[in-house]
C-alpha cells in the first residue's frame, strides 16, 4: 500500500511556515505569493497550528477582524491533525475526509518533515490508476 512518504518523495518536503505572532495580512500575502492554501504556524521550532484559506474566511472575514492587526495565534486552527511518513495514504485520505481538512503536516519524530494535501493525494491516486491502465493495456495488447 502506498504511504505518505511515497507522496513526499514525488512532491518534495518543502514546508512553508510562519510564526504565531505574524499578522493575518502578511500570512495571506505569503500564501498568495507561493500559490498555497495554508501555512504551518510555529513557535520556537514547534508546530502549534495551521492557518488556511478557510480560517481567513471563517475567523477573519466573517468576524470582521482587521487582517493587518489580527495575529495568526488568534485565528489559527489548533491542535493540528498530523501523520507520519509511514502512514498509509488511504488512511490519511479517510481521516482528512472525516475531519474535513485539506492539509496535513507530516511529522518525523518531533519535527515537521513535509505536508500533504487532498490535492496531493488525488494526484497520487490518478498516477497510480494511470500506471495500472497502462499495465493492463500492455498485457491485453501483448496477448494478441
CATH architecture: Roll
Estimated radius of gyration: 18 Å
Q: Report how far apart the termini are.
A: 31 Å
Q: What is the CATH topology classification name? A: CBS-domain
Tell me the number of structural domains.
Answer: 1
Overall form: elongated
Q: Level of helix content?
A: 40-55%
Count of individual beta strands: 5
List the secondary-structure elements in sequence, H or E: HEHEEHHHEEH
Number of H/I helices: 6
Overall description:
With 144 residues, the chain is α+β, with helices and mostly antiparallel strands. It has a single domain (4-143), classed as CBS-domain, CATH 3.10.580.10. The chain has six helices and five strands. It has helices at 4-11, 24-34, 53-61, 72-75, 89-99, 118-143, and strands spanning 17-19, 38-43, 46-52, 103-108, 111-117. The strands form two sheets. A three-stranded mixed sheet has the order 1-2-3. A two-stranded antiparallel ribbon has the order 4-5. Strand 2 (38-43) and strand 3 (46-52) form a beta hairpin. The radius of gyration is 18 Å and the shape is elongated. The mean pLDDT is 93.
Features:
single chain, two-stranded antiparallel ribbon, 144 residues, alpha+beta, CBS-domain
SSE blueprint:
Elements: H1 4-11, E1 17-19, H2 24-34, E2 38-43, E3 46-52, H3 53-61, H4 72-75, H5 89-99, E4 103-108, E5 111-117, H6 118-143
Parallel strand pairs: 1-2
Antiparallel strand pairs: 2-3, 4-5
Q: In a few lines, what is going on in this structure?
A:
This protein is an alpha+beta fold. It has helices at 4-11, 24-34, 53-61, 72-75, 89-99, 118-143, and strands at residues 17-19, 38-43, 46-52, 103-108, 111-117. It contains six helices and five strands.
